[in-house]
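FORM 7B: Structural annotation worksheet

SECTION A. Query
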Amino acid sequence: VNWGNGEYDLPYAGLVQYLRGAGEKYAQLGLQAAEHMEQIDHVRIHPNKELSGLFFLHTPGHSNYYEGNNDIIWDEYFAHMGHLFTQGLAEWYKITGNVRFRDAVLRGADTLCGKYCTGFDFVTEREPAWVMLVLMSAFELVRDQKYINACHIIVERVAYKQNEETGCIKTMLCFGETERKLMFGGKPFMCGILMSALYRYYSFTKKIQAKQVMEKLAHWLVYEMWDDEAKGFWYTDYFKMRGIHVYPANNMEIVEGLLYSYMENGDRLLYERAKEAFLCATGLEYRENDVGKTFAMRMRFAASTLKMLWYRREENDLSKGN
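SECTION B. Predicted structure
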């Protein structure tokens, strides 16, 4: 699909772009990506039952170990809970009727239920995020309550780890991102997709805990992690402390969750930050450098973001008497 380990669900991104009217080539791109994911990346059965139904990583180090000649590394990084993308497969099943797409979604979700229904923990925020999206995609297809139950366990663990006052979910940061220091902090781009996953779960269940976690994350992002000069979010709070790096292209993964939170609590700053972040990330400077996962990220999130920005803009104009 791409060498970014499938980020960020190219089958879904291509379909969304096609439905927006961008042309048949995007439908072909999305369907080819779905076929690749199901036929090549999907692991139907594995000696280790915890890996059956999941998806191969293309690069176990995510940004290195391309050679694939280290068996120990491949054994350890066979699959990653933060790199599971099945929403596109579910949507392509609805369109094509190809049961292999449906079966891949359900196999992955069933494996995750077996792995997490008796307990759940995570290292980075994207793990509960993408796992919940896998589970919710399966629930939408077959309405099996076990997927909702698994999401409930995940939400409880996320809430437990979230700081009540700041909203930050502190996890151990990668040594390569902390100048080899042992540091704990949050990653805004991962929190972005976590907010999207929480909202999807909340929209079906109306579980107030999920809504509260989402809104606390949004508060942390706009009040603590926004860099007004760069019009983007700090990569981690350690990077903020050192003034190292703001990459506005990552805004695309965050703005959808901010707007979901804005719809729930009406905090106008969430809308304003989402609008600024979206406009910056969709500027020519970043669109001209889209490759692989950044390209898929932009296509995946743009449609829902534009819809919410447009309708909320009209509401805000009316409230001002414009």
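SECTION C. Observations
Strands lie at 171-172, 184-185, 226-227, 232-233. The longest helix spans residues 292-319.

SECTION D. Sign-off
Analyst initials: ____
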